[in-house]
Design brief:
The chain has helices at residues 4-13, 45-52, 71-83, 87-93, 102-105, 117-127, 135-138, 193-203, 232-245, 285-289; strands spanning 30-34, 56-59, 96-98, 144-148, 155-159, 170-174, 177-181, 209-213, 250-254, 260-265, 269-273, 293-298, 302-309, 316-323, 328-335. The protein has 340 residues and is of the alpha/beta class. The relative contact order is 0.14. The model is unreliable at 1-17 (pLDDT under 50).
């Protein structure tokens, strides 16, 4: 029987290739983002995003629904994504940044215990064209960061990996539904020691606008699904670190939920959840009653949008959730104060 390692090597040698992806821009003013893409369904939203002409698109996880230990299955599903109408034009026009969530990680709600995470990581990196000498390929986990723009207009993207090191969830069944519960054990983690150290180092890098990308929601606390609030000590650590390191308002981009929403914290932290790119969904009563949710929820197909007007620095910033036709359905604006 052919070993999984040999299969993975063969897949690497025969993997789908695309024309050279566009490089990251010299300046970022328009940022699009989204999550939860069924590779076996049409995704006309790709044409909408391409027409919107963002400077960069951030994939926030569940970029395919892989859900398999078999590398041939995972590769075939990436090939399906690559073959969706509109995807090739989208990829040719818009640079990508990306992280993963459970379904492209390989198993629903999985964390550090999942045995095939390294295999599936490299299949993802291959599909998205990660350079062979990338530090992301060499270190454990699937996280990354980049700063784009000249001094005074530097936008930092920090792409967290909330899967590879995450402790098991604490759950219970209520009626017929599984609830994820807070686990206050001081030994549990979301990011793991090495990623936490790396993350703090990234926050020391000079930047004018910081964008933290997490596959699961950070500010929401009420719903029964995965979220940082399942690990309250880790969530507190995250928000405390961000508050200490970032003196200006900042953005958290999240996915996962199959509906879009907007959450705030002290008018400094702005979380936009964009989900799903080609699936509808319905917010739960707990979502609707969350005290940090502002501006409504949207259950249709959607993507997120941030636009910074650098000509009016310190910058008038528009934050939106847009529907499948590109129409804003949730919107908020604010002016960034001058940063360091």
């Amino acid at each position: 029987m052919i070993s999984r390692l040999l299969v993975a090597v063969l897949l690497l040698l025969t993997s789908r290739t695309f024309a050279a992806d566009p490089p990251l821009p010299a300046l970022v003013t328009k940022i699009a983002f989204g999550s939860c893409l069924r590779q076996d369904r049409p995704a006309p939203i790709f044409d909408t995003i391409t027409t919107s002409a963002p400077d960069v698109f951030v994939w926030l996880g569940d970029n395919i629904y892989g859900d398999s230990d078999d590398p041939a299955v995972i590769k075939a599903k990436y090939d399906q994504l690559g073959g969706i109408d509109g995807f090739k034009g989208f990829r040719a026009a818009v640079p990508f940044l990306y992280t993963w969530d459970d379904h492209d990680f390989g198993s629903n709600d999985a964390g550090a215990e999942y045995s095939f995470k390294d295999q599936n990581k490299h299949l993802m990196l291959d599909f998205f064209g990660e350079p062979t000498d990338s530090a992301r390929r060499k270190r454990e986990g699937n996280y990354d960061a980049v700063v784009i723009g000249p001094q005074g207009k530097r936008v930092q993207f920090i792409l967290l990996d909330t899967r590879s090191f995450r402790s098991p969830l604490k759950t219970e069944v209520r009626g017929k539904k599984k609830w994820t519960l807070p686990n206050d054990d001081p030994d549990v983690t979301v990011l793991g020691d090495a990623q936490w150290q790396w993350f703090e180092q990234q926050l020391n890098e000079p930047a004018d606008v910081r964008i933290i990308c997490s596959s699961i929601q950070v500010l929401a606390t009420q719903h029964r699904f995965e979220k940082w609030a399942n690990f309250p000590r880790e969530r507190d650590r995250l928000l405390k670190l961000l508050d200490e390191k970032i003196k200006t308002p900042y953005f958290i981009l999240t996915g996962d939920r199959h509906h879009a929403s907007f959450h705030t914290l002290n008018d400094k932290v702005f979380e936009l959840t964009a989900s799903s790119l080609n699936q509808g969904g319905t917010p739960t009563p707990e979502d609707l009653s969350d005290p940090r949710a502002h501006g409504g929820h949207f259950g249709g197909v959607n993507f997120g949008w941030i636009e910074i007007d650098w000509t009016r620095w310190p910058g008038t910033t528009v934050m939106q959730i847009r529907d499948g036709q590109g129409k804003p359905v949730i919107e908020r604006q604010f002016t960034l104060p001058a940063g360091p």
